[in-house]
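Hi there,

I know you've been waiting on this one. I reran it after we fixed the sequence typo, so this is the corrected version. Both the input and the resulting structure follow.
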Amino acid sequence: MRKLTIALALATMLTAAAAAASGALPRAGVRFTGLTSAKKVNGFQDTVTFVTGTRSLRRFSFGTLGCFGYGTFPVGVDPYATSLAQLKTVPLTPKGTFSVKSAAASYNAGDPGGKLLVTVTGRFSSARSATGTISVVETAGNGGSCGPVKMTFTAKQGSSAS
């Protein structure tokens, strides 16, 4: 009888631990938004956004000035909103970690001949919160390169994606 009680108690604890571990994953189709550690420009902070999928983060985007930077920024204009980098997907594990290494990002600012390679690593600390690091390496149209430039981020659950 004692062995049965211990076995049932152990099974209950393992089930609870498994439920807690899977609880770190948000449901698919949820939008997350947060701030990065990039410095403020013109009083504007850089943001990161993504939508959860079952096996990946989709539409992962963040503002970046690359690592070359570019020009001056008109007063009252958010330079991060006008220089977005976007990754189509970032793989997500069943344990709530996500990463992609040196992925080519679409980038709508700076040198039109340039390329942006992005590395993202992170994890869901709960079903409503994720933390991570973004690293950017930029290659200019003239062949020059710079980076990596690193920033951290924390994103919280926002509205559901359509």
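Quick highlight: The chain has one domain: 25-160.

Best,
R. S.
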